[in-house]
Amino acid sequence: MSVLNEILEANKGYAKEFGDKANLAIPPARRFAILTCMDARLDPAKYAGLSEGDAHVIRNAGGRASDDAIRSLVISYKLLGTKEWFVIHHTNCGMEFFSNDLMSNLLASSLETAELGAAGFKDVGQGPGSNEGKYINWLTIPDQASSVLEDVTRIKSHALVPASIPVYGYIYDVSTGSLIEVPEATKVGQAR
Ligand SMILES: [Zn+2]
């Protein structure tokens, strides 16, 4: 069963209540950006109190500072005026449960969805798979505080990121909804 019809139905209701949002400007009104994980339990609009037009939210698996996330952040400040950035990873992230090797082995086995059991991910597909997975760095997360620090460091040391932008490092706790600071990351990320 596809969710297509449910989504289109929900959108009709949203568009009906759209109000004056047609007048929003392109630059984020509150001039900040969040880089966070795509995890379905995280809703940055709710956990950070955002409305449409407020901020840029860049999401990928893990909320990692990949080349593409940095591309978005550079556009965010250079063309659209954001002045503060957050890197927010989270507890119980799926990116903690596999390695580059495991992921490429799962994909080499089949292109079907793997199963997550007590012993980790296991491929249950029929195959064939593909060996292309070994050419991608999946940016897995062995430890959240380290991954936040690594990503804030990567962003701050990028040649196209000005020293004046502070980058705050946080972990979202999926069991409480709270944001917990990673002080070493925020320290590396401070504006200079
Ligand atoms: Zn995650």
TrEMBL record:
Task: Name the keywords, alphabetized.
Answer: Lyase, Metal-binding, Zinc
**What top-tier enzyme class does this entry carry?**
lyase
Q: How is the cofactor bound?
A: Binds 1 zinc ion per subunit.
Binding, Zn(2+): C37, D39, H90, C93
Keyword ATP-binding found: no
Q: What is its EC number?
A: 4.2.1.1
Catalyses: hydrogencarbonate + H(+) = CO2 + H2O
Q: Which cofactors, if any, are listed as required?
A: Zn(2+)
CDD domains per the UniProt record, alphabetical: beta_CA_cladeD
Spell out the InterPro entries in the cross-references.
Carbonic_anhydrase (IPR001765), Carbonic_anhydrase_sf (IPR036874)
GO MF annotation terms:
carbonate dehydratase activity; zinc ion binding
Q: What PANTHER family has UniProt attached to this entry?
A: CARBON DISULFIDE HYDROLASE, CARBONIC ANHYDRASE
What is the documented function of this protein?
Answer: Catalyzes the reversible hydration of carbon dioxide to form bicarbonate.
Its family? Belongs to the beta-class carbonic anhydrase family.
Query: Can you name this protein?
Result: carbonic anhydrase
Which species is this record about? Acidithrix ferrooxidans
- Give the gene symbol: mtcA12
